Amino acid sequence: MLRLPPFTYLVPQSLPEAVAMLAKQGPAEAMLVAGGTDLYPNMKRQQYEPKRLIGLRQLRELQGLTGNARDGLTIGAGMTLTHVHQQRDIMAGYPALATAAGLVSTPQLRNMGTIGGNLCVDTRCNYYNQTYWWRQAIGFCMKKDGTTCWVAPGSSRCWAVSSSDIAPVLMALNAQVCLVGPAGERLLPIHALYRDDGISYLGKRHDEILTHILVPPATGCIMAYAKVRRRGAFDFPILGVAVALRLDDTGICTEARVVLGAVASAPLLAAEATTVLVGQRLTSEVIDTAAEVAFRPAKPLDNTDLTLAYRKKMVRVHVARVLRQLAGLPVVPRRGDEGHTSMRESG
Ligand SMILES: Cc1cc2nc3c(=O)[nH]c(=O)nc-3n(C[C@H](O)[C@H](O)[C@H](O)COP(=O)(O)OP(=O)(O)OC[C@H]3O[C@@H](n4cnc5c(N)ncnc54)[C@H](O)[C@@H]3O)c2cc1C
Ligand code: SF4
Predict the structure, then answer these.
(1) How far, in Å, is the centroid of ligand 2 from the Cα of 34?
(2) pLDDT, tens only, 265-298
(3) CA–CA separation, 56 vs 209, rounded Å?
(4) How far is the CA of 118 from the centre of ligand 1 (A)?
C-alpha cells in the first residue's frame, strides 16, 4: 500500500490568511489542498513533495453559489462536485456543467473533490501516473525527476494530457475565474487559466488561489457534454466534448463553441467548428463538416488509455453526436434526416 509522506497541514480560517500563508511558504515548500482527491494520490507517488499543505476547506470565501441562468452564476471554488451535479440552478440552467460534474470519478471522490480542484487538476500521462519505483525503473521523465520525455523523446516539452471534465464545459460557456493573491484579485477568461504545456499547465501564479468561477447568462443557450473513457464507473476522460450553442427563432445558429478535453495539455477550442456552425441550420451536412474541422486540430499522443488512432477518430464521432443531440436529430445518423432542427433551451 502506498502511504502519504509526512507533511504539515495548515488550516487558515480566512482567505487573507490563506494568501499570506502561501506567499510566506513559497512554491517549493507549500501547496494548496481542497478535496485532496488528486493531490494526495500524486503525493503518494512522489509526483509532488510539498512539506506543507494549506487546507482550503475552512474558507467561507470559497463556498456558495449565487445567480441563475438569466443573470449568470457565481460558483465558489470550494463547492463539491456532488453539489455542482445536483444543484437546482445548475441542473436547470447549465445542464452540461451538471452532467460533467456527475461524470467525474466516483461518488466518494465527487463528495470530496471540488470544482476549483478540478480546474487545477494535474495533467496526466502513462509514464507519469505511476509509483515512484516504476518511474525510477525507466529513469523518470521530464515532468518529474528526469530529463527525457518518453512519449516524444526528441521533444523539449512535456505532452501530459489535460484531464479535467469541467474545464472544457466552462470554456464552452465562456466562463471566467477569479484569482486572489498577494497583489490582489484578478479575473481571467478560463482559456487563460491553461497553457499547452504538460508541466507548467496552469496560467495562474503559484501564490494565487482560485476563489470562484463566473459563468455568463445562459438563457437561450443549448449545451451538452460527452465523455469517452474505458470504464464508466470512474475513469478519467480520454476525450471530452463540450458544446454550447445559441439558435435564433428560425433555427439558425448564432453562437457556437466546441471545446475538446483530453486531447492536449490544455482544453482545446475547436475554433473552425464555430465558423462552420454560425449562420447555418444544424443539418446533418453542417454537423458532419463541423465534426470534421473539429477533428483536425486534435492531436492526441500515445500517453493515455486506448490507442491514439482510436482517440483521434472518436473526436469526429462524438462532436457529431453531441451536435446531433442538440439539433434534435437521431444521434446515430439515418438516411434522409437532413433539415430537421429543433431548439431545446437550457434556461
Ligand atoms: C481514481 C480517480 C479518478 C478520477 N477521475 C476523474 C475524472 O474522471 N475526471 C476528472 O476531471 N477528475 C478525476 N479525478 C481527479 C479529481 O478527483 C478531480 O479532478 C477533483 O475534482 C479534484 O478536486 P480536489 O478538490 O480533490 O482537488 P485537490 O486534489 O485538492 O487539488 C488538485 C490541485 O488543485 C490545486 N487546487 C485545489 N483547489 C485550488 C484552489 N481553490 N485554488 C488554486 N489551486 C487549487 C491543488 O493545489 C492541486 O494542485 C480522479 C481522481 C482519482 C483518484
Ligand atoms: S509527456 Fe513525456 S515528459 Fe510528460 S509526463 Fe509523459 S513522458 Fe513525462
Answers:
(1) 25
(2) 999 999 999 999 999 999 999 999 999 999 999 9
(3) 9
(4) 4
| Rounded-to-integer distance, Cα 260 and Cα 273, Å | 11
- Determine how β-strand 8-10 pairs with β-strand 52-55: parallel
User: Does the pLDDT at position 168 exceed 90?
Assistant: yes
pLDDT for residue 57 is more than 70: yes
Residues in contact with ligand 2 by the CB-under-6-Å rule are 125, 127-128, 141-143, 149-151, 158-160, 198, 303
pTM above 0.90, yes or no: yes
Q: Is 203 in the pocket of ligand 1 (CB under 6 A)?
A: no
Question: Which atom belonging to ligand 2 lies closest to the Cα atom of 159?
Answer: 1
Burial (Cβ within 10 Å: 0-12, 13-18, ≥19) of residue 151: buried
Ligand 1 contact via 165 beta carbon (within 6 Å):
yes
How many alpha carbons fall within 13 Å on the CB side of residue 168? 35
Using one digit for the tens of pLDDT, what is the confidence trace for 176-207?
Answer: 999 999 999 999 999 999 999 999 999 999 99
Q: What is the dihedral of CA 313, 317, 318, 320, to 10 degrees?
A: 140
Of 80, 104, 213, 227, the one to substitute when testing ligand 1's pocket (max ligand atoms within 8 A of C-beta) is 104
Interval 318-328 mean pLDDT: 97
* Ligand 1 contacts CB of residue 236 (under 6 A): yes
